[in-house]
Amino acid sequence: MKQLLAALMLGTILSGCGNAPDVTQEKSSPKQETQTPVSIEKTAAYVPNPQLPDDRQLTSVNQSVSDDKGELTLKQIVRPDVTRTIGPIQMKIEEIKVFHARPSYGMIDFFHGFTHDESFDLIKTRVTITNTGEEPVTFNPVAHFKLGAKTEKTLEDDVYLESLATTYAPSETRRGNFGFILEQPLTSVELLTSDVLNENRDVVEKGISFSTDL
After folding, report:
1. Looking at the record, which segments are called Disordered (predicted)?
2. CB under 8 Å to 27, separation ≥6 — which residues?
3. How far apart are CA 123 and CA 159, in angstroms?
4. CA distance 190 to 177
5. N or C terminus of the chain with fewer C-beta within 10 Å?
6. Are 158 and 141 in contact (CB under 8 A)?
7. Could you tell me the sign of the dihedral formed by the alpha carbons of 39, 41, 42, 46, in that order?
8. pLDDT for 177-207, tens place per residue?
9. Residues in a beta bridge with 101
10. Which residues of 47-84 are buried (b: 16+ CB within 10 A; e: fewer)?
């Protein structure tokens, strides 16, 4: 009888071991999606600006474009297509446009940080900047933007926010725009860049100015 009970108990134990999960097996983890933010200023492909409509198709005065961010109407355009060299920095000034802008309702709060008008004129400059040197340098393409004798804008007034004022790695190229709300009509503009600084914040090359009629 004792032998029979012992046999039954041994069978139960072995059966339980056979049904137990394999604790040595690794649990599979769900895959985690990695999201890489798109850099507006570094990508070769066009990336829409978060604040303003795409104006690339506006090539003639009085043309308009609109999307969910608002409407732009082209008032003036000039394409200097000139390249300026500031030490290791090469800056190509591709085009300057003046628009009448009418932001959508969803964008009003953003522009209220710059103006309380529901629509306004806006000047935009498109540039390509390359560090041709072998060391990183810091550069700002628009330290000052002179609009006539009395009005001057700085990077704090920029509505495009495309991070062009930054440290450029060797051989790095950034393309993008900077733009400012206007308070009066323009016939000319003058752009003054920052100095080019090295990693120790020493001046590598003094900034330059560029002016053009509109």
Report:
1. 21-40
2. none
3. 10
4. 16
5. N
6. no
7. positive
8. 999 999 989 899 999 999 999 999 999 999 9
9. 72, 120
10. eebebbbebeebeeeeeebeeebbbbbbbebbeeeeeb
